[in-house]
Amino acid sequence: MGKQNRVQRAYRRRSPAEVAELVAEYESSGLSPTAFCRQKGMNRMTLQAYQLRQQEAAVGTASEKRWLAVEVRGATSVEVGGGASGLAVLLPGGCRIEIGHGFDADTLKRLLAVVERG
C-alpha cells in the first residue's frame, strides 16, 4: 500500500477579542454547537472552552449584578429608623430593602426577581 496522507492543521491562538466575537457569533447564529463548529472548521471542545472563558470573564466584570449567597449565624436585630429589622440589604444605587421578622418568603422571592431584572 502507498504512503498514508497526513493532514496537518496549523493551530493559532485567538486573541480575547477574537474569542469574544466568535462566541457572540455562535450565540446569535441559532445553530447547534456541532453545526456551527463544522461551518467554522473548528473543534466543538474549543468552542466550549471559549464559552467558559467568556462566562468567567463576564462574572469578573459584572460583579455588581451578582447575587452573593450568605449564611447568617447568631442573628441580631439591625436598628433602622428607630425600629428593629430582621434584615437590611443595601443595593447599588442606594436602594435599601428591609425585611422584618416573620416576613413572607414568597413575597421576598418575587421582589428579588424584579430587582434582578431591573
Structure description:
The protein has 118 residues and is α+β, with helices and mostly antiparallel strands. It has 2 domains: 16-64; 78-117, no CATH class. It contains 4 helices and 4 strands. The strands form 2 sheets. It has a two-stranded antiparallel sheet with strand order 1-2. A two-stranded antiparallel sheet has the order 3-4. α1 (16-29) crosses α3 (44-61). The longest helix has 18 residues, at 44-61. The mean pLDDT is 75.
Please describe the topology of this protein.
Blueprint: H1 16-29, H2 33-40, H3 44-61, E1 78-80, E2 83-85, E3 87-90, E4 96-99, H4 105-117
Antiparallel strand pairs: 1-2, 3-4
**Radius of gyration over all CA atoms, rounded:** 25 Å
Total number of helical segments?
4
Count of the domains: 2
Q: Report the biggest beta sheet as strand number plus sense, adding barrel if it closes.
A: 2 strands, antiparallel
Spatial shape:
elongated
**What number is the mean pLDDT?**
75
Number of strands: 4
Class by alpha and beta content = alpha+beta
Low-confidence stretches are none
Give me some keywords for this one.
118 residues, alpha+beta, 2 domains, two-stranded antiparallel ribbon, elongated
What would you say about this model in short?
With 118 residues, the chain is α+β, with helices and mostly antiparallel strands. The protein has helices spanning 16-29, 33-40, 44-61, 105-117, and strands at 78-80, 83-85, 87-90, 96-99. The termini are far apart.
